[in-house]
């Protein structure tokens, strides 16, 4: 869907293209419930209160012919800790990585981190061959991954070519290679499926699904929330909690679900949706701020066009907010052209489709990134002591049942501030042409093309 923004650097969101296209691999994988599974590491154990020792899989070779050992893994993780900006999965965490033997490494954190194995499953912590990491801090994954496919060419924002890696540690892939096109326009992606020019198609817009043969796509419930972020930085319009509350009162989600999403979405009850099975156990909300009348206050509302529904969502919100008394300027661009301005707080409100367990399979990482004072993706500029305290409580809890309860408590504190207004939870439509087998339908959006993915004539 979206073209690379950082030349497929694993330290950026491009990392998820590396994993979805079978280029790069991580030390740890996750099962459907978010529990850790072996990846490039076959086992791990705690070492003292702040350390974990990982034993590496034998016989792993990179696309450049070099072998995986502890020195290579230590180099990859150490480079991630020094990257600028820091990978989102490391927001608020400091890692120290060292060799414990030829095939063992130790990862230590400043504070105990019971979720470190899950954290190391993030594609942003993929392990590449040493040659991928340049002295100037950039990373070139071409010919440097360990996955079933070798990146042979990246054509800027247009596409990429990949060949099968015959020496993959788990055996060669069934497909001889991949031709990839980056197509931000949702209608064009759907057309590629209809015309047979695309075999696997990401994120088909809900409006296009009715035009497709039902046997060519699958609707996948996603842990992805469409949220309105309000810029709560002091001095801005929504530094006023009462005006944030006025936005909350003005929004009616029903026409958004029925319109742009054509009922292929669920009305949000919180930041975490029904794809996270335990999210319905959340405590009741308390302490909502009463709304303040806008009196014609001018605001900028922004979103991006890569997800076809979002401009329509923003247009509906524009109408609702103007009826409530705001004067709204709407800004829509491609994501690659708007992300930097959004992170710098140049908009009063921003509509974002956000995966809530993308990085570690654990929502605490997403909540910290988006809502902690030092969060690396804090679009709303939120800095609230109670929120930060609740996030620390959740992140330090090792018992999974208690951790989930504390995550929901942190969610309640975030929603209390009014800096984020969750609207709906998406169901993503993925297209698969007749004869395509083995493509992943991954709610975390980490996997797509796998070793078993292939096409046969039908």
Automatic annotation (TrEMBL):
Residues 36-376 form the Solute-binding protein family domain. InterPro entries: Peptide/Ni-bd (IPR030678), SBP_5 (IPR039424), SBP_5_dom (IPR000914). It comes from the Bacteria. Residues 276-295 are annotated as: Disordered. Residues 280-295 have a biased composition (Low complexity). This is ABC transporter substrate-binding protein. The lineage of its organism: Bacteria, Bacillati, Actinomycetota, Actinomycetes, Pseudonocardiales.
């Amino acid at each position: 869907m979206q073209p690379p923004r950082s030349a497929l650097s694993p330290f950026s969101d491009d990392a998820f293209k590396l994993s979805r296209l079978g280029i790069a691999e991580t030390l740890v994988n996750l099962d459907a419930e978010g529990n850790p599974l072996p990846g490039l590491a076959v086992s791990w154990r705690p070492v003292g209160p702040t350390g974990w020792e990982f034993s590496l899989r034998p016989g792993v070779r990179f696309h450049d012919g070099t072998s995986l050992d502890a020195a290579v893994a230590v180099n990859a993780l150490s480079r991630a800790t020094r990257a600028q900006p820091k990978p989102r999965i490391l927001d608020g965490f400091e890692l120290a990585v060292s060799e414990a033997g030829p095939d063992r490494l130790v990862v230590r954190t400043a504070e105990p981190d019971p979720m470190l194995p899950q954290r190391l499953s993030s594609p942003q912590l993929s392990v590449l061959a040493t040659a991928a990491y340049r002295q100037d801090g950039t990373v070139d994954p071409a010919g440097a991954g360990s996955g079933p496919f070798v990146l042979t060419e990246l054509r800027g924002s247009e596409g990429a070519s990949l060949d099968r890696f015959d020496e993959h540690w788990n055996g060669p892939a069934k497909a001889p290679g991949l031709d990839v096109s980056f197509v931000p326009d949702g209608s064009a992606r759907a057309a590629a499926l209809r015309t047979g020019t695309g075999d696997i198609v990401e994120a088909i817009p809900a409006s296009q699904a009715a035009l497709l043969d039902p046997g060519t796509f699958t609707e996948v419930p996603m842990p992805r929330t469409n949220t309105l972020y309000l810029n709560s930085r002091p001095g801005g319009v929504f530094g006023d909690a009462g005006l944030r509350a006025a936005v909350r009162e003005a929004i009616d989600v029903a026409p958004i679900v029925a319109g742009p999403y054509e009922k292929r979405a669920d009305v949000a009850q919180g930041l975490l949706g029904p794809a996270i099975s335990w999210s319905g156990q959340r405590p009741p909300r308390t302490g909502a701020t009463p709304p303040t009348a806008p009196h014609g206050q001018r605001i900028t509302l922004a979103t991006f066009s890569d997800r076809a529904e979002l401009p329509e969502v923003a247009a509906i919100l524009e109408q609702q907010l103007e009826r409530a008394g705001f004067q709204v300027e709407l800004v829509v661009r491609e994501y690659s052209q708007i992300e930097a301005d959004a992170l710098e707080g140049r908009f009063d409100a921003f509509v974002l489709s956000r995966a809530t367990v993308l990085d570690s399979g654990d929502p605490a990482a997403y909540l910290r990134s988006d809502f902690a004072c030092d969060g690396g993706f804090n679009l709303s500029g939120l800095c609230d002591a109670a929120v930060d305290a609740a996030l620390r409580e959740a992140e330090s809890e090792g018992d999974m049942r208690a951790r989930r309860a504390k995550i929901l408590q942190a969610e309640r504190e975030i929603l209390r501030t009014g800096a984020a207004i969750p609207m709906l939870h998406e169901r993503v439509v993925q297209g698969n042409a007749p004869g395509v087998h083995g493509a992943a339908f991954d709610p975390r959006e980490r996997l797509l093309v796998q070793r078993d993915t292939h096409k046969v004539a039908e």
